[in-house]
Amino acid sequence: SRRYDHAKVQEYWQHVWEREGVFECPDPAENPTYVLGMFPYTSGSLHMGHIRNYAITDAYARYRRMAGDDVLHPMGWDAFGLPAENAAYERDTDPESWTRACIERMRDDLREMGFGYDWSREITTCDPEYYRWNQWLFTRLHEAGLVEYDAATVNWCPDCETVLADAQVETSTGGDDERGRTHGHDHAGGVCWRCGTAVTQRELDQWFFAITDYADELYDGLDDLEGWPEGVRDSQRNWIGRQEGATVAFDIDGASASSASEDGETVEAFTTRLDTVYGATYLALAPGHDLVSGLADRDESVARYVESVAGTDDAGLSGIETDLVATHPFTGEEIPVYVAAYVLDDVGTGAVMGVPAHNERDHAFAAERDLPVRQAVEPVDGSETALPDEPYTDDGMLTDSGEYDGLASTAARDRLLAADAAAEATTYRLRDWLISRQRYWGTPIPIVHCEDCGRVPVPDEDLPVELPEYVQTTGNPLDAAEEWKRTACPDCGGEATRETDTMDTFVDSSWYFLRYLSPDFEDAPFDQETADEWLPVDVYVGGEEHAVLHLLYIRFFTRALADLGLLNRREPVDRLINQGTVLHGGEKMSKSKGNAVAPHEYGAETTRLFVLSAAHPAQDFEWTVKDVSTAYDFQQTLHEMVERYTAMRSRSDRASGEESGPPADRTESVPHDAYLEREIDRTIAAVTDEYDRFRFHRVVGELQRFARLLRRYAGYEPPYRFAYARGLRVLTKLVAPIAPALAEELWHLLEEDGLVAEAPWPEPLRDVEWYRIERELVRTTLDDVRDITGVVDIEDPDEIEIVVAEDWKYRAYHTAEEADPGDAIVGEIMGEEAIQRHGDAA
Ligand code: ANZ
Ligand code: ZN
After folding, report:
1. Is 764 inside a domain boundary?
2. For the Leucyl-tRNA synthetase editing domain, which residue ranges apply (predicted)?
């Protein structure tokens, strides 16, 4: 028979879908389902990671559309950012032209893949019509006190000449630093996330979003995000880094005349182990602690130490003793004060009480300096510790701790909090979001600097502040745009200059999912009523590299917008899927590794079918030509089956002298028909269930199995024909979300009306309660399977299929493909006919 020409088929149906507006989301929607893939960064062309991401959302969107939902499946472009500027620089063009060219190419790529988007809602973040709303939102946040302008030591990439957010600094080993580090924002030793250049530190005035105001909410909210992978929730918890503990106040005495200026100062040390406080034998300050700058001014050796550790990542256990002493608030003893780089500036209070007996680091620090090791906690069971050689770090019972002796650590922590010197404290690792970038290709921050009025927001009616024309410079092109910079102060009308920083592109992507909902809305970034109706996004799919940054920022924005009264939702996404990696030769498939396969190399339909059938969306999988050809063959098989059937149908129509309509013998009840009908119902129920769970690989597995079964019937003339025809129709519908163009072709061959993309999802003919029970059973443990089947030598429960027949009897079958179906029945025996049927076909 004729092989189907997949390239032609794809192109044709893509055209028809567009002509018929299949993917345009009804407005207003009755049954809204929002399916969203993370919009691509406009880097030039689509890679396999994109394809996998969008194949997942497209399959789910198509499935829900057929199931009767009003589905929104939009697409847009994350178009601002440094790489465009770098690319433009290298190619001697400007970022805008380069970006627009990328968008054209990538849009074509997406179309060619047959993905169904509502292009009427396309958004591009570098359009002034989009970024004006970034500016508008900045102004609203500013009014609400959620924007700050602060001098800050910032991570600086000397190559990109820009500030980097903490999360844009990677450890030079290239690992996922988000999870590795527990403390700190001291990124010396890190490299720029884009170009890999070693990051340095700089002091600059910068704009921040006060995401830390939401630290608790963002942290606590994670517990309720049941549709999110645990790994992502953990990464966010870790990133927010909430630690509950206490501060302990130490009074400082200057031991010499020159240190009198610190007399009467108090240093608060943050600790999670207040129970060990009697074991504190020294106090250590971070090099950036407030007290230290004064110390350094009058003490050369402190100054030299601070200088020597600035910008180094592993100052180890170095430190320097100061001429200060601290009074231990519980014992009244005087303890020495050190400056030590292991105490981080921006963790806790930047000061620690050193407890050598119960903390590894403090123990090591003390050992090098012969500081006393004083035990305050002992094992509850009275067992020996390795003190003073090794610290005892577990909880236990207090000893040598005055009135607290004998208390358990937990109880002691509570009781000690009542003391004057102690106070409950929570610290966070999360820092405010630094959004300033000294680059051109981003949203200009809508602020005017006026000598008299200070920093004045640009009034809404003057938005957008559009980017000036691009000029090539090494620094920030906006600084060089003299004419653009010069403006009038919105307040006093006097001469003023524009802010030249642009916004981090993560601002653009923090609310884009809202813009799709009302892309032409002119009064605000989005229409609140529509947004309340559509949110949260039902499914959001994207790479796990966004586990922290982007996915924390959209949560922050949603909450901030709710507090601004612009939205009635506090979480943006109901269900999150991080798609796994496509591997090739054991390594992540990528251009830079030279192991990339272009999305169209094997044809769009084959690629989609393969990436969806290879593994669960969250799992990594290996690209192999063998598996690709399996996907290809499956399409050919389906096509052949339908073609053979239509040929047979027209033969028999001619023989019976009828154009169409049921043959006379249709009313006869035939056992094989009943069996096939039941299998059709079963397949519908199974496949629907798998689509609901995003297990497209199992959908394909079910469909392959079903196609094999159906094929065994192919040679039979009526009376099986009606069940068979239904089987083909159902198969076509069920495969449509995954191989949409092939399915349209089959639908057309079957002479069905309309488009399969718009056809209703198939329904089982009879009650499938039995099927649900069967599924439950399959999910039970191996022991249960043994109980039910009485078979003891089952190794792998996946080899066994439990079926509940309509007579409610349990039946178990081997499902391993090689097993002969007739012999493989291990439970009860199925009806004679069915065995015979299987036997015939085998
Ligand atoms: C005294 C103490 C005794 C501590 C003890 C621990 C154990 P973890 O260890 O991750 O729970 N810390 C506080 N501020 C710090 C800073 N700015 N830089 C470096 N370390 C700092 O973190 C909590 C502990 O980290 C705190 O509790 C403190 O040491 C240290 F047996 O205080 B602890
Ligand atoms: Zn002014």
Report:
1. no
2. 237-416
Relative to the alpha carbon of 270, which ligand is closest? 1
Predicted local confidence at residue 275, as pLDDT: 98
CA 431–ligand 1 middle distance (angstroms)? 18
Three-class DSSP category at 350:
coil
**344 close to ligand 1 (CB < 6 Angstrom):** yes
Whole domain around residue 671: which residue ranges? 625-758
Rounded-to-integer distance, Cα 328 and Cα 177, Å: 37
Task: Give the residue, by CA position, lying nearest to ligand 1 atom 8.
Answer: 272
280/391 same-domain check: yes
Residues 291 and 166 in one domain: no
* Cα–Cα distance for residue pair 821/833, rounded to 1 Å: 13
Same domain? 252 vs 379: yes
Residue 462 covered by a domain: yes
Does one domain contain both 713 and 773?
no
For 575-602, give one letter per residue: b (16+ CB within 10 A) or e. bbbbbbbbbbeeebbeeeeebbbebbeb
Cα distance from N-terminal residue to C-terminal residue, the chain: 23
Q: How far apart are CA 666 and CA 658, in angstroms?
A: 14
Q: Is the CB of 826 under 6 A from ligand 1?
A: no
Whole-number pLDDT of residue 805: 44
Ligand 1 contact, 343 CB (< 6 A): yes
pLDDT the model gives residue 821: 33
The pLDDT tens digits of the residues spanning 406-427 come to 999 999 999 999 999 999 999 9
All residues at 6 or more sequence positions from 62 whose CB lies less than 8 Å from its CB, including other chains: 116, 736, 737, 740, 757
Report which of 238, 202, 123 is spatially closest to residue 521, judged by C-alpha positions.
123
Total domains in the chain come to 5
Which ligand ends up closest to the CA of 362?
Answer: 1
Query: Quick one: how far is CA 10 from the chain centroid?
Result: 31
Contact 608, 55 (CB under 8 A): yes
**Per the confidence metrics, is the pTM higher than 0.80?**
yes
Distance from Cα 454 to the centre of ligand 2, integer Å: 7
Same domain for 418 and 342: yes
Amino acid at the residue 282: Y
| Closest ligand to residue 450's CA | 2
274, 318, 268, 317: which is closest to 290 by C-alpha? Answer: 268
The confidence score (pLDDT) of residue 725 equals 87
Question: What pLDDT, in 10s, does the model give residues 448-480?
Answer: 999 999 999 999 999 999 999 998 876 788 999
The residue contributing the CA closest to ligand 1 atom 27 is: 271
Residue 175 is predicted with a pLDDT of: 38
Q: Which residue has 């004060």 as its token pair? A: 337
- CB contact at 8 A, 674 and 832: no
Is there an atom of ligand 1 within 6 Å of 289 CB? no
| Ligand 1 contact via 359 beta carbon (within 6 Å) | yes
**Is residue 17, in this structure, part of any structural domain at all?**
no
CB crowding 51-79: b at 16 or more within 10 Å, else e: bbbbbbbbbbbbbbbbbebbbbbbbbbbb
pLDDT for the residue 73: 98
pLDDT, block means (10 residues), the chain with 842 residues = 74 94 93 97 90 97 98 98 84 93 95 95 98 98 97 84 76 43 46 85 91 98 96 96 96 79 91 98 96 93 93 84 96 97 92 98 96 97 94 97 97 97 96 92 97 97 97 83 96 97 97 97 97 97 92 98 97 96 88 80 89 91 89 93 85 55 45 78 93 95 92 63 86 98 96 96 82 55 49 54 47 46 33 36 33
Cα distance between residue 45 and residue 113, in whole Å? 13
Nearest Cα neighbor of 736 from 2, 22, 106, 19 is 22
| Best residue among 181, 359, 387, 416 to mutate for probing ligand 1, ranked by most atoms within 8 Å of CB | 359
Helix H, strand E, coil C: the string for 630-650 is HHHHHHHHHHHHHHHHHHHHH
Q: Is residue 5 part of a domain?
A: no
Are 179 and 248 contained in the same domain? no
For residue 282, the model assigns a pLDDT of 98
